[in-house]
Design a protein that fits this description.
The protein is mainly α. It contains 17 helices and no strands.
Length: about 375
């Protein structure tokens, strides 16, 4: 396959960032129609976005006042919001909605496009395919919105807004940090530069992502074990120590307010209001939740039940192709996908929100492209 020059590759990424800006400007002007409100770009569907925004704001506000309180949220995203609240004097989430919108919809998503392109190039070794992956990432919210609207999914508009990175929510900071951490790991692995310094940097970044979203903590043992498999023992120790130091404030917060480092605020019934159990990880790892997850898909999006096996087949071929070329990178992509999806199918609200799966979108796109290429290559045998 003919490839792009480095200059064309950079211009292609820039074009996608500009396209993203255009998409957001159209969204701000209600194109496509998603019932945007308040001066053209403030979505406010109370039943969909609250009380999450309130929880994040309350903890962030307490940080801004240097007086932390017990809260349902992890501390990472509120720490990001705290300076915004401090310097703006905001009294509620509506007061910071616009600046958060600008940071996430423009800056964070643009960074994500760049990182997806760079990660894809490191895996696929082809700039044209890397641009394709980044392009798919840029426009996938519209494909999702079209499918949800076609299926008359009742939460199609909120789901679309979530995928556009425009709401006060931890998913977007989590995703950018995770993409960045995996990019450095993959880049340095390919260049044989995965030394103690960069292993520690990666530990810092992935642990920061875990501070934002607890599911990301699963990637810490993944990378640690891969470093062990690569016989980079000193690097694995540096990675683990750096990650521990960054994540330690969350465990201290948990212990101070909830009595145990492993008890998180969203498990506390009095804080969350969801009737969750107060014991450590209580009720989270329940197979009943998996049944509920797929039942909801069947009731709301029955077409996906038939599409999922096809997607799984494509992903298996993509993993096979990548594994034959580079086993370690195949394992990284595979577990990057499975740990995120596997974690959240235990969570009964994941199907209705869909935003929880944002961290897994880049590896899904990359493996899908590889899988389609692999399947297409079989035509010569037909």
């Amino acid at each position: 396959m003919n490839d792009l020059t480095k200059k064309t590759f950079i211009l292609g990424i820039a074009a996608l960032v500009i396209l993203r800006f255009l998409i957001v400007f159209l969204l701000m002007n209600n194109i496509p129609f998603t019932d945007m409100r308040d001066n053209g770009f403030r979505p406010n569907f109370g039943g969909s976005y609250f009380p999450d925004e309130v929880h994040y704001f309350e903890l962030a506000d307490s940080f801004a006042k240097f007086s932390p309180v017990a809260n349902v949220a992890n501390i990472g995203y509120p720490l990001f919001l705290a300076p915004i609240i401090y310097f703006t004097g905001a009294a509620g989430p509506e007061d910071i909605a616009k600046i958060v919108f600008i940071i996430q919809a423009f800056v964070f998503f643009s960074l994500a496009i760049i990182l997806v392109a760079l990660i894809s190039f490191e895996i696929l070794k082809n700039r044209k395919l890397a641009i394709l992956a980044a392009a798919l990432f840029t426009i996938y919210p519209y494909f999702l919105f079209f499918i949800l609207k076609l299926a008359n999914f009742p939460r199609a508009i909120p789901a679309f807004h979530y995928q556009m990175w425009i709401n006060i929510g931890a998913d977007y900071l989590s995703a950018v940090l995770l993409y960045f951490g995996f990019y450095i790991f993959i880049k340095k692995y390919n260049s044989n530069g995965l030394n103690l310094f960069f292993a520690s940097i990666i530990g810092n970044i992935i642990a920061a992502a875990a501070l934002v979203r607890v599911a990301n903590i699963l990637y810490l043992p993944l990378i640690f074990l891969i470093l062990i498999l690569l016989k980079k023992y000193r690097e694995s120790i540096g990675f683990g120590l750096a990650a521990f130091l960054v994540y330690l404030p969350q465990w201290i917060y948990n212990f101070y307010f909830f009595g145990s480092p492993l008890t998180y605020g969203y498990r506390i019934k009095e804080l969350s209001g969801h009737g969750l159990e107060t014991k450590i990880f209580g009720g989270w790892f329940s197979f009943d939740n998996i049944v509920i997850f797929f039942e909801r898909i069947w009731l709301n999006l029955p077409a996906l039940i038939w599409i999922l096996p096809i997607l799984v087949i494509i992903l298996i071929f993509g993993f096979w192709k990548t594994f034959k070329q580079e086993k370690t990178l195949a394992l990284v992509l595979g577990f990057w996908t499975l740990l995120n999806i596997g974690f959240y199918i235990f969570f009964v609200d994941a199907q209705s929100q869909l935003r929880y799966f944002i961290p897994a979108i880049p590896p899904l796109i990359i493996l899908s492209i590889s899988g389609i290429i692999k399947i297409y290559a079989f035509r010569r045998f037909l």
